[in-house]
Amino acid sequence: MNLVLRFVRRELRSTEARILVLALAVAVASVGAVAMFADRVKGAFANQANVLLGADAMISGDRPLPETFAQTAAAMGLKVTESSRFGSMISAAARDAASATARQSVLADVKAVAAPYPLRGTLEARDARGERVPLVAQVKPGEVFVDERLASRLGVKAGDVLEVGKNTPRIAQVFAEEPEVAGNFLSAAPKVLMSSADVAASELLGPGSRATYRLQVAGERAQEFAAAIKPKLGPGQRLETIRELRPEVRSTLERSEQFLGLAASFAVFLAVVAIVLALRRYLKRELDTATLFRTLGAGQRQTLMHFVGQFFVLALIACVLGVLLAFAAQAALAWAVRGLFASALPAAGWLPLAKAFATGLVLLLGFAIPPLVALAATPPVRALRRDMPTVGSGGVLAAVLGAVAVLAVVLMQSQDWQTGAIFVGGLVALVGVATLLAALLLWCIRRLVRSGRMARLGGPQSWAYGLANLDRRRLSTALQIACLGLGVMTLITVGFVRTDLFSAWQKSLPPDAPNRFLINIQQDQIETIQSLVPKTANGKPVAVYPMVRGRLVAVNGKTVTAKDFPDERAKRLVDREFNLSASASLPPANKIIAGDYYGTNDRGVMSIEEGIATTLNLKLEDRVTFDVAGEQVEVRITSLRKVDWDSFRVNFFALIPEATLAPLPKSYITAFHLPERDTQTLASVVNAAPNVLAIDVSEMMARVRSIVDQVARALEFVFAFTLLAGLLTLYTAVIATQDERRYDTALIRTLGGTRSQIRSSLIAEFTTLGGAAGLLGVAGSVVLTWALASRILKIDFIASPTVWIVGFALATGLTLLAGWLGTRSVLTTPPIQVLREG
Amino acid sequence: MTATLTPSPVANTLSSQPPAIRADALTRVVPLGDRQLTILEGVSLDVAAGETLAIVGASGSGKTTLLGLLAGLDRPNSGSVAWHGEAVSSLTEDALAKRRQGAIGFVFQSFQLLPALTALENVMLPLELAGARDAEKRAADWLARVGLGERVDHLPKQLSGGEQQRVAIARAFVADPKIVFADEPTGNLDTDTGAEIVELMFSLNREQGTTLVLVTHDPELAARCGHVVRLARGKVVS
């Protein structure tokens, strides 16, 4: 082992060994950073499960739960509490009529609870020093607890009075945190706790109101209770336990981890190219060592074990370095997306570290073992016959084992062999296409040089020599351009999405597009609301649409449940209630694509949006049954519609005739454009109809923008590894040609060439290389963003010259730097020394 | 033609002992394109223990090939090689390597030092490969013997050609070999340095009592050896 360690210590002075270690470290770091970050996010759920639930188990539904559930829990000796959760506009109580119309209202997340609450975890308030302390008091009738955000936005404090529907409770406590905050990490609405006893008097919940009803239990037999209740759950009812917390969020997390993992695999792929190039040069150098070992009496096995040991130690060093980099990168990732989480993420466990280490070991040993076996078989007679053919790189076995190693890492990242295989195939195709494009670019350059246009353009001969160098190593050059170009492309695209694309989409919206939605309007409030909100452009009162909540329970007479659908979105649609509406004529921004829209005299029919129909496998003439407040309503699909959701108008997935809707319990919804400077309209609406919820679309878009921004930043961090790996590949390729360059340069200098001319040719070579990579990256990014804009966001493509110029300059500058670092020694080594070495 | 060497006084005394090296009808053929090239044909010789043998001949005569076969670095197409009575040409590669460990030393024209290792570490290498525990001390002693006691931590690139060859000689002798093979040991050195190296090699050889077989173009070096085998076109001519 001492011999191995001594060799490693010496070898780390060589460029090839350093590149091997660095390239592997980049691969390990990109995999490790994503794995650690994902583990931290999952840990935020797993470690705090019962606090996030506020209980050991919870049943929730969109209608009041059967009493038998609570009775069963009580019979098992469990602690039980029931609550409901809904949105409501909250405002500070007005001192007088004048201030009533000027005050601010805030859409809040209201929880109506009964003591004891919560069953697990505690609310936290702040003491005089601002430190968090447990809040054990229970909210009583006539009072509310509000969170710090609501207090801040309304400018209220403990002791002040609020308006919550028809009630005017006093603020008893201001809390900093309550259970379920971290679990609902996408919710940004301020929170209010009120007593369940006050709900009826508030008149916040009427027919068609959207609320979630919950039963929470805690105790030793909670899991037993969950197992007993699960078969009895009806449609729209969900059970969550510590072990199965928020399955939809868990599913989102797994998808995100998979996506980030695949993004990191991109860097792994490029790093592998650098590893292979560095390995070839390293092994060529080690040929003399292997020969000497064999000559001095080391058998094949002993020689192989020595080299395997060397590479194992190098791999360990790379893994440690990579893991350290990963720690820093995942901390940066967590910081970049900190706005998505309400509380700090816990530390990562040991599994991501193991994953990162495994990546490094599998990659290096997977690629190194076959050529090492070939190296160990070096015939000792090579000591006398230096002109013997060099050892092979391991042949087909090496290629197969290397490919298996990469595939193993990608599969580990994708967690799904199909996705992994598609990704690898796509990546190989992408690199192949990029290489072809790069080769085409080089052909153009070659034509330029050979045609003599360069000289006619006034370029020095040294430039032509530099460009000819690129042409001499065509395949290697094309690959370098492709790898670097792909790295630049991903970074430019993500940056563009984060900045220009989202802004362009926002600007594409009509200036008078509705930016306020009012929901939960009751029938007797319609005229009042229409008189308070701005009229439409043609002077008419805003349209108000009926909305009925119904759950899909049967198709063509056959009962359906969420379990009948494999698609996650379909499951959610069936589990929750649809919003059904009616419109005598086809609404604007809707287009019939199949069947005929129903007429005013039609009954029992439905027009459905095409996307929903596809998700739920519904087609024309299918009979669909909805459960509306306990009443079964069957309709026949007579048309499919395409909806322009970007119009921001009120639109519905399902439209039924007014005659069918009329007898059903309903609320109403409307949307209008409110000028930003208008602060009175909404206050008037809340005064007149406290049960109405006002949704500020601009605020929601700002929130979405913020989320997109943070996610894009996270992606930029991950793709930065791709760029780093691309640069390492370039540097390695340059190093691989170093001996040849040194010899050529020595000859040229001997024949009278100056250092300045050689320097000029190197600059020309690497500037062209980087420029070509930058051009490829920018071109690829333009194609990607055009596709995103025109096909997905359906907006005009926006040119972003600044981003392109920055991307091009970055690629060119970094390539020049990497190339210069790899070749500067050719200018400093005395020609005589090189020529003597031969 | 077979080279029958005049037995030396040492060899006479120990004539009951097998020769240090016995080569019997060695033939070596290599493929060259679609034809075969015979590099050596029917070469036989004996080298007694403690003798010095020079293999001489023009370029392409098969000298280095013969050296490789005698040293067990290469395998003959036919014929056999034995060291101290033990046949080695029929051994497996690993078994042959094992026999070389500690028994055979090498000095090469191009020194063949590992550039990343210091002089001390280069000399230690044969001992470490054989699993010796006192490698460092023995290597340091040998470097002192060859006059490089103060250069132990220097890398090969920090040593002159002659110094590098001294390190190589120390490495060749450090494991107390019975036989030392040298391939053009002065080929890359100037005349004066070459002479110093030759002097060092022969004095160490005398002190250690090793059998020395060397390939050389240098007639003066060949003249210093007890016996000379001349090759021409793959055959022994004298």
Describe the structure.
- The complex is a heterodimer of chains A (838) and B (238).
- Chain A is of the alpha+beta class.
- Helix content of chain A is 55%, strand content 16%.
- In chain A, α2 (15-46) runs antiparallel to α22, α12 packs across α13 (417-450) and α16 (474-508) packs across α24.
- The longest helix of chain A is centred in the first third of the chain and has 49 residues, at 247-295.
- Mean pLDDT of chain A is 81; it is low at 182-186.
- With 238 residues, chain B is α/β, with parallel strands linked by helices.
- Helix content of chain B is 34%, strand content 26%.
- Chain B is built from eight helices and ten strands.
- Chain B has helices at residues 9-13, 63-70, 93-100, 119-129, 135-145, 161-173, 191-208, 219-224; strands at 21-32, 35-47, 52-57, 78-83, 86-87, 104-107, 179-183, 211-215, 227-232, 235-236.
- In chain B, the strands form two sheets. Chain B has a six-stranded mixed sheet. A four-stranded antiparallel sheet of chain B has the order 2-1-4-5, with helices on one face.
- The model of chain B is unreliable at 1-14 (pLDDT under 50).
- Classes of the chains: A alpha+beta (838), B alpha/beta (238).
- Chains A and B meet through α1, α9 and α10 of A and α2, α3 and α4 of B.
